[in-house]
Amino acid sequence: MAKRGFFISFEGGEGGGKSTQIKRLKTVLRRNRVPFLVTLEPGGTRIGRKIRELLLNPKNKNLSNRAELYLYEADRAQHVEEVIRPALEAGKVVITDRYADSSSVYQGICRGLGVGWTEKLNDFATQYLYPDLVIVLDVPESVGLSRVRNRLQSDPKLRGKRRVVKLDRLERERSSFHRKVRKGFIALSKKHSERIKLIDATQSPDNVSQQILALIQKRWGKRLR
Questions:
Q1: pTM of the predicted model, to two decimals?
Q2: For residue range 66-122, what is the model confidence (pLDDT) as tens digits?
Q3: Rounded to whole angstroms, what are the CA distances from 1 to 4, 128, 159?
Q4: 198, 136 in Cβ contact below 8 A?
Q5: Closest Cα partner for 37 from 95, 99, 98?
Q6: Please, what are the domains in the chain?
Q7: Distance (Å, rounded) from C-alpha 197 to C-alpha 210?
């Protein structure tokens, strides 16, 4: 595909600060009058939102690892066809909160389904459409999970048990699982070092933002002020 836009995905474990940094990047792109689209996985389409409910609802405790992977890939296939590819062909910067590399880590590595098999499914679902730049916001799992808990505690809309209920199916995984997620992203960044860049997200948000912009400008070849 001869895409004209620029494709960025944000990855990493829970509480890495993806939402914060995406908001900051949106501000920069608006200031530079760059057309952009922000989306997410799972749930970037109407169909995807229904799949997201299945995947992240903590009541679905018996969801098999293989079924989980196929649901993510179904969401991704719809996402690429309906949202991502058209936006890139229209010349927009596309920013997604998670994409194919999340499946490689969460299902391929952490669920033990195999990175090679998962990446083949990613190829099929995306029709080989991968980000120009993948930014992994890296934090120790203890820091990330603490951030998630603090975010829930500070949410004025949540009271009592609703704070616990708000945790999705993946956020409720054990610390050992989240530790494995972090190691998985580090390993994947070494395997695909040309497109996946690791950033220490324990730094201040300003420092992290500066490093993200530097990576984007270097890869995209356009200066952002």
A1: 0.89
A2: 999 999 999 999 999 999 999 999 999 999 999 999 999 999 999 999 999 999 999
A3: 9, 9, 48
A4: yes
A5: 95
A6: 6-220 (3.40.50.300)
A7: 14
